[in-house]
Automatic annotation (TrEMBL):
This is Histidinol-phosphate aminotransferase. Its EC number is 2.6.1.9. CDD domains: AAT_like (cd00609). The gene is hisC. Homodimer. The lineage of its organism: Bacteria, Pseudomonadati, Pseudomonadota, Betaproteobacteria, Burkholderiales. One of its GO terms (biological process) is L-histidine biosynthetic process. It comes from Massilia horti. Pathway: Amino-acid biosynthesis; L-histidine biosynthesis; L-histidine from 5-phospho-alpha-D-ribose 1-diphosphate: step 7/9.
Length: 365
């Protein structure tokens, strides 16, 4: 062993050494349909105005860590109930990390539970924080297996349960009554996090139900709305619970440029909302066209992506890659055989995807 290998063996946690890491493929020259990004930019006049505001950013100073103005705008514009505040994160990825860090107690077993397949950062963050992760498979129709979830809650007494609403990578909304029963089942013993990353498209929410459940956290992000590059997530919960999480948050976790860009975007929500409506309509069109292809099944989606079952996902993805179209292969995910996930994009990119898929299904590259 070289001395650097010895150093790593002696210092880095064995589970971290084993980890593959979150792989983000190089997308230059590709049609990028693998990360649920909004393909539309802000109109040029708005970007010019944003540029002027960013020119005035006080970048020689640390951010003011209370983030009062931005938080007030988030609360006022995004439906946070009266009396509730938010915590901001460097993307909701950081908020997940904050919650698991706060719950990863050392004095007894601490568990994160989620239906699977789920957003990979739930299990990844849990394990990095030293928590156990328990995944409960969805039913074959992609609905929550409520009985299995309740049994797992009784058995493992999870500190945190994550429910993405709609779910990623499946795209469907779980039954809200089933979710409420799961949240209630944990009451004083576990925190239920409803991850509404796709709220701009699904519109349906648990945010207004915060007063009903003391153990509920509602988490969202500006990423899927069209601001993935600025990295801003937010979450709300009972103020006493939020105050605990806030102690774990790095004080300057949202930078001043993000703060200015987010405030600007919130002042122009109408533009972003219209883009989301366009994408919803495009999703339904794309779903209908996919459904007409032989051997292809499309699953219902309330998000800006579609999960699609094909005869051979590995082959389709390899063929699509050769055609310079990036999609997500879900073959390694439980429950789903031969599924791919594709982000809904502009009409042009959607039809390029469709054409590439049609050609790929035939097995020709
Ligand atoms: C994309 C996604 C996120 C991550 O959002 P960021 O704010 O960009 O970190 C969180 N949860 C789910 C379910 C997602 O699909």
């Amino acid at each position: 062993m070289s001395s650097i290998d010895t150093l790593i063996a002696n210092t880095i946690r064995p589970d971290v050494q084993q980890l593959a890491g979150y792989h983000v493929p190089d997308a230059s020259g590709y049609i990028k349909l693998d990360a649920m990004e909004n393909p539309y930019e802000l109109p040029y006049e708005l970007r010019e105005e944003l540029g002027r505001r960013l020119a005035d950013a006080v970048i020689n100073r640390y951010p003011v860590p209370s983030y009062t103005t931005l938080k007030q705008k988030v609360c006022a514009r995004l439906g946070v109930p009266a009396g509730y505040d938010v915590i901001l994160g460097n993307g909701s990825d950081e908020l997940i990390s904050i919650m698991v860090t706060a719950c990863a107690r050392k004095d007894r077993r601490a568990t994160v539970l989620a239906p699977i397949p789920a957003f990979v950062m739930f299990s990844m963050s849990a394990r990095l924080a030293g928590m156990d992760f328990v995944g409960v498979p969805l039913r074959p129709d992609l609905s929550l297996d409520k009985e299995a979830m309740l049994a797992a809650i009784a058995e493992h007494k999870p500190a945190l349960v994550f429910l993405a609403y709609p779910n990623n990578p499946t795209g469907n909304l779980f039954n809200a009554d089933d979710m409420a029963e799961i949240i209630r089942a944990m009451k004083d013993t576990g925190i239920a996090v409803v991850d509404e990353a796709y709220h701009p498209f699904a519109k349906t929410t648990f945010m207004d139900r915060l007063p009903e459940f003391g153990n509920l956290v509602v988490m969202r992000t500006l990423s899927k709305l069209g601001l993935a590059g600025i990295r801003l997530g937010y979450m709300s919960a009972d103020p006493a619970l939020l105050a605990q999480f806030d102690k774990v948050r790095p004080p300057y976790n949202v930078n001043v440029l993000t703060q200015i860009a987010a405030e600007f975007a919130l002042d122009h929500m109408d533009v972003l909302d219209r883009q989301a409506e366009l994408l919803n309509a495009a999703r339904d069109e794309l779903a209908a066209e996919l459904a007409s292809l032989p051997g292809v099944e499309v699953f219902p989606s309330a998000a800006n992506f579609l999960m699609v079952q094909v005869p051979d996902a590995d082959q389709v993805c390899a063929n699509m890659l050769a055609k310079k179209v990036l999609i997500k292969n879900l073959v390694k995910m439980p429950v789903l055989a031969n599924c791919i996930r594709v982000t809904v994009s502009t009409p042009e990119e959607n039809s390029e995807f469709l054409n590439a898929l049609k050609a790929s299904l035939g097995g020709t590259t």
